[in-house]
Structures are given as C-alpha cells and as structure tokens.
Design brief:
Strand content: 5-15%
GO molecular function: O-methyltransferase activity
Structural class: alpha/beta
Keywords: Methyltransferase, S-adenosyl-L-methionine, Transferase
Largest sheet: 7 strands, mixed
CATH class of the largest domain: Alpha Beta
CATH topology of the largest domain: Rossmann fold
Radius of gyration: 23 Å
Distance between the termini: 39 Å
InterPro entries: COMT-like, COMT_C, SAM-dependent_MTases_sf, WH-like_DNA-bd_sf, WH_DNA-bd_sf
Protein name: Methyltransferase
Order of helices and strands: HHHHHEEHHHHHHHEHEHHEEHEEHEHEE
Helix content: 40-55%
Number of strands: 11
CATH architecture of the largest domain: 3-Layer(aba) Sandwich
CATH superfamily of the largest domain: Vaccinia Virus protein VP39
Length: about 375
C-alpha cells in the first residue's frame, strides 16, 4: 500500500509538472540536503533534546555559529519534513528526526550517506573525466572524494576505522532498510528443502545472513568466509547466540579470489549475498570460477543481488531506488548492478555447467534471489 501511494503521487506530480517546476524542485532538493548535511556536520541534531526544544540563541552559544545561519538552515531542513519548530520559535525534533537519532541502525545509515555516499556522487563527473584520460580501475569517484589512490576495498584494509564503519553500515542495511533486510533471504528461498546441508557464506562479513538462517533452519550448517576483521567481529557476535545455533556456524578467514579451501569443497550451497555487484565482470568471473571448481554435482550457487528492471516495467519509485544503487556501484567500485541478461552472460563466462534455474524477487525486497545449478 505504501509503495502504491508513493507511485501514485509521483505519477501525479510528473504529469502536472512544468519545466520550471522541475528546475525549482531540483534546486530545492539540493538546498534541503545541503542544509541537512550542515546540521549533521555541526552536530546540531545532538544538541536538540529528544523530549523538548532548544532556542536558536542557545544553539548559537554552544556551537559558536551565527544564530541567523542556524535558524535559516534548520528551517530549510524543516521543509523536507526533518525537525520542527515550536510555537515559541524553538527548534525540536519531529517524529522522523527522532527516529533517525534514536535508532542506531538508522543513524549509522544516515551518517554513512552524508560522509561517504554523497561525496562520491559529487565526484562522479570528475571521475568520468579522469577515465577519459586513462583507463584505470582504481580511479573512481570514491578515490577522488576520499582523496586516496587506493581502491575502495584496499582503502578499507589499510584503515581499521573505515573498515569498522563500513561493517556497521552493511549491518544497518540488513536490519533497518526494509528492502534489504535479511528476512527476504530467509523467506525467499526454500531452505528447508535442502535437509541437512552445508552452506558456504562467501564474503559473508560478520555472518548476519548465516545467523538469521541458522535460527530458522536447524538442519543447516554454515561456513562464513571473509577477511580477518569481519570474521573476528562475527565470532564475537556469535557468542551471544545459543549454543544450538552457534555450534552450526563456523567463521573462516578466506580471500574469495583464491581457491576454496578443502573443507568447503563439495558444499551443498555457495551463498553470495550482495557480493557480486561489488565487482566488475572480470573479477566476478574469477570469484565464481573458484566456487564452480569447488562444487560437486548437485551443488547450487544462491545469489542475492539486484536485478535491474527493464525501464518502465517496475514501480517508478522502486526503479529509481534500484538505479541509485547501480550508480553508487559505478561511483565507488567501477562495478554495476546487472539486468537479467547480464546475469546470464556472467555465469556463461564462468562455466558452461552453471545454469540459472530461477530468479525471484521476494515481496518488498530490492534484491532478487538467483538460483544456479552446477
């Protein structure tokens, strides 16, 4: 119902919108975000009591910023339905800003969007100009925005603070983003039909997906593979689980650009949840070839990733959200989200045994589940 309301209002606006309306709205949206970013940077949100209000004069005293600038900036944010002003002219949270501030997952998402995602969007044009000069996979909007010569994942490896921040962001996406929650993976594939089976969670970060599946399907066992830091974090998180669940989840340090270790050869399922969209085809083929070489007859590859719709065939608001993700992959990683034919072509490059059995998008999910047989 919410999606239908969003779609209907979007269509009505688009049908009645004149060019001048479009340009005005575009300008307003840019200013609204610039003001929200300003309020975040100067920690104004943290100065506002959750169950009360604060005068602009008091905010000016605390932050040493001009009172008129705080008032003008906050009032612009209010036009985006963020924050509110009392009858006495004081600044207060509204339900939306209070939810953002109180929910750790939402605040992590909000912070990452402002500090990492949007700067990459702003550097997109400059990065494309650089790529016209020289084809260089490491030169992305991310490297320009973050002032580094390292690619995204190499940058994380050298900076534990950034790595931890990204790990928290990914976890937040699995818990607070309705279209990206792990529930869609749990409910969108017939895991129970596997019986007693071994699942290798390739690039599984700290094991969010495996933990959720282990809670629901007691006959499944899991091997979560990733780099040292997320594996360490996963082991710590698993300590809070009941023994009945934790004893079925193993954490292993593994670089998926190398062959699968002996203990994960012949697994029943190799799971890639939001992994392959991080890599251009050349790298994705390398990753999948190691899995194809390790699998046995009857093994399956289960990919939960985005499948871009044919333009105009999906809800306009959903399509916009998916295409935003596609652009972020391009801006950060020189990768992309893929359409159906792209997925067929990708698996065809890996091994002729790999055949797509089914593609399903669970209701409410931004991601589809792609089942591939070996």
């Amino acid at each position: 119902m919410r999606q239908e309301i969003f779609d209907s209002t979007t269509r009505i606006k688009q049908l009645s919108q004149k060019p001048s309306d479009f340009l005005t709205e575009l300008l307003v949206q840019q200013q609204q975000f610039a003001c929200i970013e300003w309020l975040f940077h100067f920690q104004i949100f943290r100065q506002i009591p959750l169950n009360g209000s604060i005068s602009y004069g008091e905010l000016a005293t605390r932050t040493q910023l001009p009172e008129s600038d705080i008032r003008a900036t906050a009032r612009m944010a209010i036009t985006a339905n963020l924050l509110s002003e009392t009858k006495q002219g004081k600044l207060a949270h509204n339900s939306l800003s209070a939810d953002l501030f109180e929910d750790p997952g939402l605040w992590t998402w909000f912070s990452y969007l402002i500090k990492r995602s949007v700067p990459c969007m702003r550097a997109y044009t400059q990065a494309s100009e650089k790529q016209l000069e020289v084809v260089e996979s490491a030169r992305t909007a991310y490297t320009i925005a973050m002032k580094t010569e390292l690619s995204f994942f190499d940058h994380l490896k050298t900076n534990p603070e950034l790595s931890a921040e990204f790990g928290k962001y990914m976890k937040s996406q699995s818990t607070v983003h309705a279209g990206a929650t792990v529930d869609h993976l749990v409910e969108g594939f017939d895991w129970a039909s596997l019986g007693e089976a071994k699942i290798v969670d390739v690039g599984g970060n700290s094991g969010t997906a495996s933990m959720a599946l282990a809670k629901h399907f007691e006959k499944l066992s899991f091997v979560v593979q990733d780099m040292p830091e997320p594996v360490h974090n996963g082991r710590l998180q698993a300590q809070s689980l009941s023994r009945k669940i934790s004893e079925r989840i193993q954490f292993v340090e593994h670089d998926f650009f190398t062959p699968q270790p002996d203990e994960t050869k012949g697994a029943d399922v190799y799971l890639f949840r939001m992994i392959l969209h991080d890599w251009p085809d050349e790298d994705a083929v390398k990753i999948l070839r190691h899995v194809a070489a390790a699998g046995k007859e009857g093994s399956r590859v289960v990919v939960m990733d985005m499948v871009l719709p044919i333009p105009g065939t999906a809800s306009p608001t959903l399509e916009a959200a998916l295409r935003q993700k596609d652009l972020m992959m391009r801006q950060v990683l020189n990768s992309r989200e893929r359409e159906v034919e792209d997925w067929h072509a990708l698996f065809g490059k890996v091994d002729e045994r790999l055949q797509i059995v089914a593609i399903r998008r669970p209701e409410g999910s931004q991601h589809s589940i792609i089942e591939i047989s070996l």
